[in-house]
Amino acid sequence: MTTRFKQSIRPPLFRWWGPVLILLALIRPAGAAVTIDAVYVAAIGNGLNPTDPAWSQATATTVALDSVIGPTGVPQLLPTAQWRYLQVRAIHNGNQIFFRYEWADGTNNLSVADTPLFADAVAMEIPFTVSSSIAMGNQREPVNILYWRADLVKPENLVSGGAGTVQKSPDSEALPISHSQSRTALPGSWTVIIQRPLQGTYNPPAQSGNLVTLNRGGNYRICFAQWDGAQEERNGLKMVAGSWQTLQVH
Predict the structure, then answer these.
(1) Which of 89, 90, 112, 137 is close enough to 142 for a disulfide, judged by CB 3.0 to 4.6 Å?
(2) Spatial distance between the Cα atoms of 126 and 132, rounded to a whole number of angstroms
(3) Alpha-carbon distance 76 to 79, whole Å?
(4) If one looks up domain 12-249 in CATH, what number appears?
(5) Of 16 and 48, which is predicted with more confidence?
(6) Total Cβ atoms within 10 A of residue 117
(7) pLDDT tens digits, 73-117
């Protein structure tokens, strides 16, 4: 596999927070892991349009974002009242797959500038191997991340080999990834749809890119993160699902 990310010098704290996250998931109650069904729909008119009839065949699955990654980099399980919730749907036509994310957000943060201006964002992480760490992977077993931010022209394809190594994949700009984004009126919510091909660029030995291939009939571990710009969340400061979820491609 040609996962091209730069190694970085990380303080000791960032070397052990991944195992801490796994340990915490085992010893304390958190949001229940769920399965997201990517439903096959032969005729998808415009999957980037949330009103397309194809979306009526997809079931909304609620993912609990139960943990926060703070300035120290250590994950902290929040009280249930402070959890956020991400609704996820997925459809595909055997060639293209569409991921639809919806979440409540009372503020519309569209730009990034000098502090304290930060944009809203959401990301989905898929590991390259079944043993990759949920905490952004590690240098031998990295993860693939699809990252949307409200100010970006298109979502970015990222690769990470552990905390502090996240970077845009060299194939990100060339990949046929597109999206739509919209907001509702008060109290406010985001709807973001990301389209990508089922066939990725990471398919050894023939291909060596950094977009995981999703096969029909396959089950994949996935995880989600969300940033609220109004809360000055950016980079490693974010809300996450504290355990792996499952994507089932029908």
Answers:
(1) 137
(2) 9
(3) 10
(4) 2.60.40.1190
(5) 48
(6) 14
(7) 667 898 999 999 999 999 999 999 999 999 998 777 776 655 566
